[in-house]
Amino acid sequence: MRFKRSALSIPYVIFLLIFVMAPLAVVFVFAFTNGSGHFTFENFLGFFRSSRTIATLVYSLFVALVTTVVCLLIAYPTAYALARSGFKKNRILLLLAVVPMWINFTLRVTALKEMLDFVEGNLAYYPFFNTIVGQVYDFLPFMILPIFNVFDEMDNSLLEAGRDLGADRKSLFFSVILPLSMPGIMSGITMVFLPAMTNYVVLDMLYNSTYIMGSLIGSYFNAYDWHNGSMISAILLALIVLFTLIGKNQKSTNVTTVSPSP
């Protein structure tokens, strides 16, 4: 009997159906039904009518935006320095940058809480600051990795060509380096921005009273309101898909921009 290589995908397809597609189907069923099991859009209409949910969404977007910007400001020069360092084993330096992620999540956040409590005296007095510090601490490696990979694979001949054409450091950065690194930036933003809207576990462990979308989803499920909880999850899933499409668009645009003219 001849073995087909396509058969190797069968375990992955089974895993995908059981652990991805089936849970998503359950989420969408609850999102588009009411307590009686009837199809309805009322869950989504109620979301946009409620001032509480809109305020939570706006605040969550603001928290995620600040977290993403801070992560990017730290990760971009760090990734560039790691990728362009003279050290031949620069991936060892990258490993040292992400090795804290190997430590148990609870231990890491507990250690951060002790450090913040020692510096600030009382965590409850600085809820927004604690939110940003906790989120950046948790998501920074996810911003560093994709940007590092882009810098590590960047063609040095493009930088040399820019210098030969008389470009100074500023022009070289904005005309060559930044456009070429945009795919990594977009990947990092996607991996940080949306999870930062829902990662309320870190905030709870830091004794934080900040209320974000993850907290709202958790409150609905804790109250056994699976319909509204699933509805908000579906909205966030739509945002993820939207950001992914924007990221792919941005990547193709930048590839076209830096391609040499015929």
Explain what the structure shows.
- With 262 residues, this protein is mainly alpha-helical.
- It is 78% helix and 0% strand.
- It has helices spanning 10-31, 42-49, 51-84, 90-98, 105-120, 127-153, 156-164, 169-198, 200-205, 213-222, 226-258.
- Helix 1 (10-31) crosses helix 11 and helix 6 (127-153) packs across helix 8.
The poorly predicted ranges are: 256-262
- What is the CATH first-level class name of the domain at 62-225? Mainly Alpha
CATH architecture of the domain at 62-225: Orthogonal Bundle
| CATH level 4 superfamily of the domain at 62-225 | MetI-like
Radius of gyration, taken over Cα atoms and rounded to an integer in Å: 22 Å
From the N-terminal CA to the C-terminal CA, the straight-line distance is 51 Å
Query: Which bin fits the share of residues in helices?
Result: over 70%
